[in-house]
Amino acid sequence: MSEESPLQVTPGRSLSLLKARSGLIARGLRDAAELVTQNVPLLSTRRLAEQGDAAAQYELGEAYYKGHGVPRDYAEARVWFRKAADQFHPYAISDLGDMYERGEGVPADQTEASHFYLRAADIAIADGGDWDPDWVLGAVWQGAQYGHADAQFFLGCCYASGKSMLQQDHTEAVKWYRKAADQGHVEAQFNLGWAHENGKGVIQDYGEAAKWWRKAAEQGYSQAQYNLGWADRNGRGVAQDHGEAGIWYCKAAQQGHADAQFELGRKYYGGEGVPQDHTEAVKWYRKAADQGHANAQHNLGVAYYYGKGVAQDFREAAEWVRRAAEQGNETAMFALGYLCQAGQGLPQDHAKAAGWFRQAAERGNTPAQASLGAIYRDGQGVPQDYVQAHMWFNLSASVSSGDEQTRLSAERDGACQRV
After folding, report:
1. pTM for the whole thing?
2. How far apart are CA 159 and CA 220, in angstroms?
3. 199 vs 5, 17, 74, 91, 218, CA distance in Å?
4. CB 338 within 8 A of CB 304
5. If 0-12 CB within 10 Å is exposed, 13-18 middle and 19+ buried, where does residue 2 land?
6. Residues 77-117: tens digit of each pLDDT
7. Residues 203-249 pLDDT 10s
8. Digit-coded pLDDT (tens) for 387-412
9. In this structure, is the dihedral angle defined by the CA atoms of residues 147, 151, 153 and 159, taken in order, positive or negative?
10. Sign of the four-CA dihedral 281, 287, 290, 294
11. Alpha-carbon distance 153 to 187, whole Å?
12. Measuring CA to CA, which residue among 26, 17, 8, 14 is closest to residue 158?
């Protein structure tokens, strides 16, 4: 298992009602754009607005606000903006916020301004792809300034990734993550933990990372539960505690988190922090394997091979190992090569064995390098080649130790003498 913590999350919260409404507005905006390009008289826009067309209501409000084609009249602009805003027109909502903030046609009212800015931020986050990028960023920024937790998180993600026309700035990202996290925003808490874990925008601090992951984990966020289990298992920012790691892995695993299911399987298989139970291990390996987790697929194959937690079945072993090998798992590649060579669970095929050993060996798998050296030495499935045998025995001997290194060195030297 890799000891790296997972990457941070990105914004993607669903606001289904706003999304449905905003889809209708998007079509309206396109219609309005056509009206402008065709120079349709303002009278036609008014007629559409009076018929309830949100885009036309917004255009008419803009005309009164800017004095285009009609005398400037903030009060009339506000009337039409509000009609459009009542139909979830995002630009109208933002403009109403601006009018209340500046006191244009109405007494300045920061509370009312914040109401509209927060509504606009909702739409920008829910379905920003349908709107002008400048407006989306502005709406998110205004919402964040007024304490909108989703907007603060969104803005933090934009700074972290350098997207939405913002220059990448991890320090600024952390600032916005923290504002949202302090309001209990679970994804912001997770990302703040990630920032502390990796020293992005803050001084690296594993204890702080674990603290923020715990806050998110206690809210049921499965990725944070997995990360906290990982921290407990490795003593990263917290005292090492295999039992506590098992608890958090279990919570994440029960939510379908494949990595947590695999780790929980490993714990039951080896009895690490939990009573050893091969049947329970196989159960969790299978759940992760069914989601395509390559390490779990390999370990499930091993369980079938040795008959631990399941009845021994070489065919099932070969099938699960094959699935892992085809995903690039080098340990599974070696295991599949071994099964091909031995004819266990599938027909004996030395050429296929050599192919799987080579793929694993080229990825640095030491047992596969030694097996490939033996195949070239004996000419099994490949033409006999002592130069190749010497090379692979030498590679495997160089990273081995003790008796195994002595044995492989002797094989290497034997191949050299036959060149």
Report:
1. 0.80
2. 26
3. 13, 38, 49, 38, 23
4. no
5. exposed
6. 999 999 999 999 999 999 999 999 999 989 999 889 888 98
7. 999 999 999 999 999 999 999 999 999 999 999 999 999 999 999 99
8. 999 999 999 999 999 999 999 999 99
9. negative
10. negative
11. 8
12. 8
Structure tokens at 169: 């700035």
Per-residue burial over 93-115, b if 16 or more Cβ lie within 10 Å, else e, is bbbbbbbbbeebbeeeeeebbbb
Q: What is the CATH number of domain 157-253?
A: 1.25.40.10
Closest-CA residue to 260 (of 287, 297, 238): 287
The residue ranges of every structural domain in the chain are 1-146, 157-253
- Cβ-in-10-Å burial (0-12, 13-18, 19+) of 17 comes to exposed
Is the CATH number of domain 1-146 3.30.360.10? no
- Quick check: do 1-146 and 157-253 share a fold? yes
For residues 154 and 381, what is the distance between their CA atoms, to the nearest angstrom? 56
Task: Compute the average pLDDT of residues 134-161.
Answer: 90
* Block residue for tokens 């490795």: 234
